[in-house]
Amino acid sequence: MKLDNLDRRILAALQRDGRLSNVQLSEEVGLSPSPCLRRVRLLEQSGIIRGYHAELDRGGVGLGLTVFVGIKVGQHDDEVDSAFRDAVADLPEVVSCYLLSGESDFLLQVVVPDLPAYERFLRGTLLKLPGITDIRSNFAISTVKRETGLSLAHLPGAAG
């Protein structure tokens, strides 16, 4: 889908506040409500807008420890890869997983209440995942920057 200036403004507004009503959104982007709603629906149907959610404070819900876990797998075949990906997809403690090039094969972002909870997760779950040969845990001390919105500066009509 080719995005234009109106799409960029709609996306930027919804990233700032996903709870905007269609009327509020249409006023903010300078479009009447019906065409605005059609554009939002097209953005949703194309998969550019993947969903709407509430961003929670991790500490506020008792998830005070973030761990970045580098994982190496021993075999690089479809069966092991598929089994590993399926297993990780089912772990609620893993909030993101990336396939990497470099020292690790995968990087997991794990969120748990505290160090004892991570130890239980490591011993009871991670070490039992298929194909793993090495696990390296890096503990986040503090968050310097955490953005949920994406930069849209490269799209048509963006300033700068």
TrEMBL record:
Keywords annotated in UniProt: DNA-binding, Transcription, Transcription regulation
Q: Which InterPro entries match?
A: ArsR-like_HTH, AsnC-type_HTH_dom, Dimeric_a/b-barrel, Tscrpt_reg_AsnC-like, Tscrpt_reg_AsnC/Lrp_C, Tscrpt_reg_HTH_AsnC-type_CS, WH-like_DNA-bd_sf, WH_DNA-bd_sf
Q: Which domain of life is it from?
A: Bacteria
According to the UniProt entry, the coiled-coil residues are: none
Location of the HTH asnC-type domain = 3-64
Task: Give the protein name, as stated in the record.
Answer: AsnC family transcriptional regulator
